[in-house]
Write a structure and sequence with these properties.
mainly alpha
């Protein structure tokens, strides 16, 4: 089936937002949030030392360290006795449902 460039819908070359470009709403929200950076870090520091709950202190400390040094890497591990299998081949078959000779059609009445 050939695509007509004048049809409605679907992806067309050169259309849409360029890859990696944030949409306007996302850019505006990030800009507003960044105005609170200093205040937010100060509040995290306060919570890390003065929060009554140990869970709140730990969470604040973790956030501060993540912001300052980046999140710790998470190794990907698995069960050596049962490793994940990687597909060797993926087959895609497009058939016309009207074509009785298509694969699997012998099962239909």
């Amino acid at each position: 089936m050939e695509m007509n460039s004048h049809t409605h819908g679907g992806r067309r070359p050169g259309s849409g937002r360029k890859k990696g470009a944030p949409n306007k709403a996302t850019a505006e929200i990030k800009e507003i949030a960044r105005t609170y950076t200093v205040q937010a870090v100060k509040e995290l520091a306060r919570l890390a030392t003065k929060a009554k709950s140990e869970a709140a202190r730990v969470a604040a400390i973790r956030e501060l360290l993540d912001r300052g040094y980046g999140k710790a890497t998470q190794p990907i591990t698995g069960d050596p006795e049962s490793p994940l299998e990687t597909p060797q081949r993926i087959v895609v078959q497009v058939v016309d449902p009207k074509d009785r000779r298509a694969a699997g059609s012998e099962d239909r009445p």
